[in-house]
Amino acid sequence: MTKGAGWRAPLRAAVRLVGRVPLASFLAAVMWAAAVGTHSVVSGPPPEVRHLVAESLDSAARGDWWAPLLSIFFTGNLASYLLATAIILGCVGLAEATMGTLRTALAFVGGHLGALVLHFTVVLAGSALGSAWLASMRPGAIIGPFAGSLAAVMAASPLVSALWRRRLRSVIVAVTLMLLLYVGHPQALASFLGILCGLGLGRILHGRPAGAHLPRSTSRETRALLSMMVAVFAAGPAMAALAQAPSGPLAILRDLIVNPIPTISQLQANCRAAVDLSCAQVIHSPGLNGPGGEALALVPLLVLLVCAEGLRRGNRLALWAAIAVHLVIGVLSAIHLQLFSLFGSYMRTGGRVLPVESGVVEVLPVVTVPFVIAGLLFINRRHFIVDPDPVLRRRTAILLPSLFAVFATGYVIAWFAEDNYHRRAGLLALLATLPRMFLPYPFSFRYSVSVFPHGFFSTLIFSYGGAVFWLVSVISVLLLFLSRRLRNARPDSEFSTARELIRQGGSSLSWMALWPNNRYWFNASQTAGVAYQVHYDVALTIGAPFGYPKDASRAAEEFTRFCAAQSLAPCWYSVTDDNWEYLQRLGFRRVAVAEETLLPIREIEFKGKEWQNVRTALNRARKLGITARWSTYGGLSVGFRTQIHEISEAWVSVKALPEMGFTLGSLEELKDDNVLIGLAVDADGKVHGVTSWLPVFERGQVVSRTLDFMRRNQEGFPGVMEFLIASAVIHFKESLDVLSLSGSPLVAPAAGSGGNSAVAANIDALGRFLALLGRGLEPVYGFRSLAAFKARFRPQHRTLYMMYQDPLWLPWIGRAVTEAYMPNTSLRQTAKLLREIMG
Predict the structure, then answer these.
(1) In this structure, is the dihedral angle defined by the CA atoms of residues 434, 436, 441 and 442, taken in order, positive or negative?
(2) Fewest CB atoms less than 10 Å from the CB: which of 42, 141, 558, 672?
(3) Percent of the chain clearing pLDDT 90 (strictly above)
(4) Going by C-beta distance under 8 Å and a sequence separation of 6 or more, which residues neighbour residue 432?
(5) 286, 291, 297, 298 alpha-carbon torsion, rounded to 10°
(6) Distance between terminal CA atoms of the chain?
């Protein structure tokens, strides 16, 4: 290695950083230069400097115009300087890379000054209105680049993708609110106000995008946001416990979520009551001021964090556990704060546990926040569909009560064996110490010393029994939340039978029968089956019967009789003309619901004028170094999986209505090892687009593939979907005869499309409703645009029908189809859907 090579690489990296984000680099460099030059690195600016650079009400009254600008380059201590550097390079750097240096500088300075003005206004107004918390901020001084940096990144957020904009704003707002509500220092308030200024400056600098609306979240994104909210609620009290003199409105919740260990003075207050135990023994008892007590104090925090991880994974048990924990915290907060005088808890001396001297307005958030979080979790419960493993759930249900019984029984036996009964407190001591040993919530520590156990074994169990029990409980519950079984109303044996029959034969949609929420019916010999969903007493099938082809017509007749016996109205959805002959004999009628596009791929050459768009996409991909990669989901690297998730989330986030289901697959359906995934990937590993192809079986062999999942990176090259489908034609050409580009839902056949035009002329009331629904959803989901896109590949068309028996059931069938496609639609979204349909 040549001389000096060791420092050249970092130097080049620093030069590149300065070139990319000059403003952020300048701010960080000046801040550290000022810190070193004024000896402020370790403990902040010294007094002779601090009064010149710290912005406060006093400096504003004196007219120190330089203080707001100089305050940017100083902060409180070494940790704060390191944090400020990270925030400058991260937030200001991101803003600079997104909207340029000039606009970032304007947002930084404007946000910093605007936050200071708003801070002083809020503090003065709050003080005048009698807020003790805001009044305590009047003498406080503000230093640091935090408000300006957060304002800059918030101002730049409208320019990033909808998905990352929501994530960025959610994380920054959540963390800042946590610091404001739990720590409550002036700097936290100024930072939060800086965020508001940044959002306003973003609107001024960039305007409101045309057609902007509140971006939608997928279930996965919603779960992530709710999980983050619960985690922040758990971490906030820990931050308050670590902070110096926290004063936020929710700071007192640290007494409930991070259970305080009794102080030495609290213990010494009891020493005079000691009869047969020394004061030193009380103070250093492991159950009070040792590892056992400290571990027990962290239990509520750990429980909430475990619930947050379970929520992120969509676990229903974690959802109800989190709701229960927040309700308990809310109730105990009300009791602890004596919001209602009936709950006043008196000590042995007659004093109250916690006199509430502040106004109800300041106390109320402490009680309401846990209830609000519980309410939000309950409202969004439809996003949590994962059940834990039933075997592990049963084992956990046996383990934890048994472990509790072991420790409680062991303590009682040791307590009596070591002659605690004949001491001063008697049996009352046992009744008092049992809950104290297990419950991780604050109890009055002003017990008489003689209440605590005497003797080696009883003291050992009292000191560590509760901590060990909760440690095992937290680990067991975490493992339970990490396990999963998709919520499905079908036994595993039925699923396996359906999977085997689908391999024997079925339609291009038969693989969708294996998706969640489907039920199964099998004939007596289990040679044919039907997948269906029940909505409003309508048995809505997913395609035609699957299994051995010779038994299909007989299976349809038997399934119809089964529905009659179950008081269900049978409705065959997305079936072809091949099924019409025997269903017509059973009294069924039909209406077209989709157009399936079929590609006879062995005949396709991509030659001629009609293939110009496809050839252009292939040539553009070749010039850009983009290739098609084929794999199953399990065979993809973590990087590719992450990009697929981000592309899908970004696609859903710009939709005004939720992601659809039924015959339209989502991200979860990609994880099947029989589903082949096609990626458009450039030389840097960036995914431009993704498609998935479902297998179509005949006698155990794959004879075709059906296009299901289509997502395009918002920054992907134009023509990426044409490239992926053309690449699929090339990839499958040697092994398959036909590819199905699937049906375009709610698109009636057009004249000359190859469908049965006589059927289109006889569309009844339900057909008109479905056509109206398709037109209404076109601006949101673009089904007709999708059909037009598929027509570029010169396909053959096949009409897919919905076949039903009783016209009187048409209103319920229409509702069943709507609910099958959009099962998670809320009332607000339903109203929006109706507005879209009615124009």
Answers:
(1) positive
(2) 42
(3) 18
(4) 425, 447, 451
(5) -170
(6) 71
